[in-house]
Amino acid sequence: MINRRAHAVWQGTGKEGKGTITTQSGVLADQPYGFNTRFEDKPGTNPEELIAAAHAGCFTMALAFQLQAAGFTATEMKTESVVTLEKEGDGFKVSKSALTLTATIPGIDQAKFDELAHAAETGCPISKVLNAEITLKATLSQG
Angle, to 10 degrees, between the axis of helix 110-123 and the axis of helix 47-69? Predict the structure, then answer.
């Protein structure tokens, strides 16, 4: 079993308050977040951005393992995740994570690429934890 930690500190009200997020690795250390970073695109981070980063990273690594098991090695894979936050009743919900992948993988055909990309999409741990629609647009580059 692997445990990873992060913590948040918040001071003030929901709209006027401010917080910081720190991760175990130190990659984020007292990174500011608040209403303005979440809903107004001000500098700082927000939970949805962190979910998007986690999903893009998890999916891409899962695909690397799928490729390895099938005898392929990617020259490069670039994945973007766009996480959608929507109003739901009196609150909000992460409703979607849209993955967009461009990959250069020598020797693979389109059918095998699609099969492995789909397996990574459904099999990565972050996909499994999200209670949201997950989509994947995967492009195999001929580079």
Answer: 130
